[in-house]
């Protein structure tokens, strides 16, 4: 069978086969699903993307050793905190990591994680960088968070495949990371409406979030903050 025939056969089978869907209780691994139209559904899942800002300029202007260490330390900090807040790491994509939260407090868990990522980047990773390198480089990042019904399916070819996450939350959380790193945490209204005071209010009882109209996506109501939560 030629490559064209193989692709044609896959398209015919995929478009011609009904989905088998089951409700998920835990975040699946790729091996938990078939390569056919098989999916796990979560009525509500919260997706967090943590993205290293301006990484193109970083690799173009700095030594590869420096850029590599920035990548590694940023992704480690974000990943360690995702797991610490009961999230599951489901994807690494170059300079960013995707986490999925499915607990009853998933929105607050994800936002607490984002605030701690902000603290870790600015007060731990940046500090250690400056001890080892004589540079004025500042690590900047953006975290995007959204929540929705989400389905996970397996995609790829035999021997080389992974999960794809289908739903508004994965798409919009990723798109939020294209917004300004001057306000490193961005969330949708669907997330904001569920926040408890610990994730909504600052040390003086002030609301830490600023509301925006998202011009790049239907004027949706979104929120940003510059605050962080100290890691103990």
UniProtKB/TrEMBL annotation:
Coiled-coil spans are none
Any idea which GO molecular function terms this record carries? adenylate cyclase activity
Q: Which residues form the Guanylate cyclase domain?
A: 46-177
Record Pfam families: Guanylate_cyc
Its GO biological process annotations read: cyclic nucleotide biosynthetic process; intracellular signal transduction
InterPro entries cross-referenced by the UniProt entry: A/G_cyclase, Nucleotide_cyclase
Gene3D superfamilies from the UniProt entry? Nucleotide cyclase
Which sequence ranges are marked TM in the entry?
Answer: none
Q: What is this protein called?
A: Guanylate cyclase domain-containing protein
